[in-house]
Amino acid sequence: MTKEHWAALVEASGAKKDSEGFLLPPEGKLLTLYISSNGATLSVQRIEAIREEQGLVRARTKKGELFVLALQDLFAGAVEET
Questions:
Q1: What does residue 23 show for φ and ψ, rounded to 5 degrees?
Q2: Rounded Cα–Cα distance for residues 52 and 44 (Å)
Q3: Do residues 74 and 33 lie in contact, with contact meaning Cβ atoms separated by under 8 Å?
Q4: How many CB atoms lie within 10 A of CB 7?
Q5: What is the pTM of this model?
Q6: 3-state SS assignment for residue 3
Q7: Where are the alpha helices (DSSP H) in the chain?
Q8: Euclidean distance between CA atoms 58 and 56, whole angstroms
Q9: At residue 82, does pLDDT exceed 90?
Q10: Which of 21, 28, 42, 50 lies 20 to 30 Å from 11, alpha-carbon distance?
């Protein structure tokens, strides 16, 4: 995913920064990120907070899980209504 693609996803989600630098979508919205690396795929769902820094994306789910992903491995993102 390019920085432009990332910025479009953040904009579409309506996310705002918190005091820790995470972007939080508004109440009632969650994100899903789709990742592909060396032929393996993964989707991270029910994301409530994201942060991109130096090519790494930190994604925190509703369960409190924290995923650290390479921005270059992301190929899509979705904004979902809960």
A1: -95, 125
A2: 15
A3: yes
A4: 11
A5: 0.93
A6: helix
A7: 3-13
A8: 7
A9: no
A10: 42
Distances from the Cα of 77 to the Cα of 6, 44, 58, angstroms: 9, 9, 14
Residues in the chain: 82
Euclidean distance between CA atoms 39 and 17, whole angstroms: 33
What the block records as the tokens of 16 is 């705002």
Number of H helices, E strands in the chain: 1, 7
CB atoms within 10 A of CB 27: 6
Contacts of residue 20, Cβ cutoff 8 Å, sequence gap at least 6: 51
Token pair belonging to 40: 């393996």
Place of tokens 């995913």: 1
- pLDDT single digits (tens) 12-51: 999 999 999 999 999 999 999 999 999 999 999 999 999 9
- The partner residues of 81 in beta bridges, in order of sequence, read 29
Residue 15 identity = A
The DSSP element (H or E) to which 26 belongs, if any, is none
